[in-house]
Amino acid sequence: MSTTWHDSRFGPGSYxxxxxxxxxxxxxRVNIPATLRISGGTSFHTVVxxxxxxxxxxxxxxxxxxxxxxxxxxxxxDAVQAHVAWWRxxxxxxxxxxxxxxxxxxxxxxxxSEARSPKAVR
Length: 122
Fold this sequence. Notes:
The protein has helices at residues 15-21, 102-112; strands spanning 28-38, 43-51, 55-59, 69-73, 80-88, 91-96. It is mainly beta.
C-alpha cells in the first residue's frame, strides 16, 4: 500500500507532515551523551550528533532495522519515542513519533551545541 503526506494518518504534528510542510528546519550539530533502547532490547549508551524537532542522528555500533521503535533518553529528560529511519556505518537516523518541544531543543543546544562559544570563567 502506498502512502503520501496527504494520507490522514500523517496529520499535523506527525513527523511525516512536518517534514513535508517545512523541509528547511535545520538539525543542529551537537555532542550529547544519551541512552538509546530499541523495542524489545536493552538500552545502550550513545552520542547524539545532530538534533532537530523531528529527529536525530546518533552512533550505534550494531546495525538497527529500519522502522524499529526506539526510545532516546537525553540528559535530564524522560525517554522520547522514535523510529529508526536508517543505519549506515555505525550511525543511525531516527524520526521522533511527535515533534520535540522547542524549549527542549533550546536547552540541549545551550548545553551541548558544537557551535556554542565557551562560557566565560569568572
